[in-house]
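Handout, page 2. Input:
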Amino acid sequence: MALIIDGRKISAQIKEECKEQVAAYQARGIEICLAVVQVGSDPASSVYVNNKKKACAYVGIRSLSYELDETVTEEELLQLVDRLNNDPAVNGILVQLPLPAHIDENKIIRAISPMKDVDGFHPYNVGALSIGLKGFVSCTPAGVIQLLKRSGIEIAGKNCVVIGRSNIVGKPMSMLLLRENGTVTVTHSRTKDLQEITSKADILIAALGKPKFITKEYVKEGAVVIDVGIHRNAENKLCGDVDFEDVKEKVSAITPVPGGVGVMTIAMLMCNCVASVEINERA
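Output:
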């Protein structure tokens, strides 16, 4: 029977560890502060932002909330980011994506100080990851690595296949697996013979954004399958990129949706906020 990797349990462990670290900093008179900026009132974004605030409150991190109208100009948002960059009381800055169409997301990401980029999206931090330097790592792929490690799954020497090449998940995921000495193949929408490639993977990471796309034909017997996708089906129930029921009997370990990768993202954000203290001290 497959191991169902419990993201809720592992994320709770990580948050407890962060809570202890935050308390240790507080004992030294150091307060950690995260500034969260939301533009507009997209319901999904509001849920994510509220969950981040709750996680901050739980681990003892102070959160500053900036809720801006959807009509805010790009220049006004850049001015706010600049002000937060220069505020020594703020350790981390998070601008909730997506942003309205009239605002250039890449410009906003690049405007955030790399030393306060707790999302790990800034080109500086992406570059640091690619050459093995310390820096903030994108939270979702960092969470995947923790799920594997804390479930006793060896990465070194394994044939790892990532489906998806996004800047937020696919690309950093591949670099993190390389850092752990995995042998990595990145596949995407233009990949030929996708099924042939994925069916040889010891560890398969699905981040392609298509509900229940990965069926048992795509999966090697005894593989580990990590499902990064999250969607709502026709019955309004959450599902992933993997057809869980079809795949689970064939694999050795698998993440469910919900309760797998998704909950890890906020736990790793808390880790980045804690790490921001040392990163800002080095700046």
